[in-house]
Amino acid sequence: MDDFTNPAELAQASQTSPVLVIIDHHVLARTCILSILKREFAGFEIIEMPATNGLNWLSGRDIRLIALNIEDKPITDPSIGDSLALFAEYCPNAYVALLSNREDEATASAAMQRGVRGFFPTSIPVEVAIAGLHLVLAGGVYRPLPIVRQNETSGLRMISAYTDAPELPAIHDGNGARKILPERTMVDLTPREQHVLAALELGLPNKLIAAKLSLSENTVKMHIQRIMRKCSAHNRTEAVVRWSRRVNGHALPSRVRSS
């Protein structure tokens, strides 16, 4: 296969098909990704190239997503900033995804802050990456889930957008401070239930949770039902909020508690 798609071939390609672009200077990795995406995204034209300098040939095309392999580079590497600037210039409507050998929270967060819609560590399974790409193409955001171990809940963050969770019991101390009391009805979650809860916190659908955790969708539904029961919640949103409030040990802001 040529080092990158021939411009003459691009000129002859259909001008109406949506396009996915893969940028990776490793020929083997690039062509393997190309093969997988052609199978999984049949309605798209998949274009691969070794570097960003071929983007000018795509002017006027319906570029939906650009996936760039940054390997071990930190997000602060100037070459990554240059690439993102080129994407914005030549493909302003395209979503951007990064493939990285790094999988730490800091790198993922830094990528999101730069407008990247998908952050894919090269350590994740293929089916998870495919599900994540579908999510990005649908207008969502994909990033690796935080690791949540038993009795370790630092990965859970407060969700301030939800407004339908009831108040937890509380007491006021002599200084007027308000402290949440633990609910006896809230039972500790198993490690697997914590993983599912972390995925729910990110707003992931059951299908993507199943792919991420290598579970069936029916098993995910079962875990969600158990989480709701243990949290005395009526729905998944309430379960996430109630558990987060228990973990954080304080009341939600008033703007969260009322519409």
Keywords:
five-stranded parallel β-sheet, elongated, disordered C terminus
Descriptive account of the structure:
With 259 residues, this protein is of the alpha/beta class. It is 40% helix and 14% strand. It has a 5-stranded parallel beta sheet with strand order 2-1-3-4-5, sandwiched between helices. Strand 6 and strand 7 form a beta hairpin. Helix 5 packs antiparallel against helix 7 and helix 7 packs across helix 8. The chain is elongated. It starts with 6 loop residues before the first helix and ends with a helix. The C terminus is likely disordered.
Secondary-structure-based class equals alpha/beta
**Strands, total number:** 7
Radius of gyration: 22 Å
Low-confidence stretches: 147-174, 177-185, 250-259
Arithmetic mean of pLDDT = 75
Q: What is the overall silhouette?
A: elongated
Query: How large is the share of residues in beta strands?
Result: 5-15%
Characterize the largest beta sheet: strand count, sense, and whether it forms a barrel: 5 strands, parallel
Helix content: 40-55%
How far from one another are the termini?
Answer: 58 Å
Spatial ordering of strands, largest sheet: 2-1-3-4-5
So how many helices? 10
Order of helices and strands: HEHEEHEHEHEEHHHHH
Summarize the structure.
This protein has helices at residues 7-12, 27-40, 78-90, 105-113, 126-137, 191-201, 206-213, 217-230, 236-248, 254-257, and strands spanning 19-23, 45-49, 63-71, 95-100, 118-121, 170-172, 178-180.
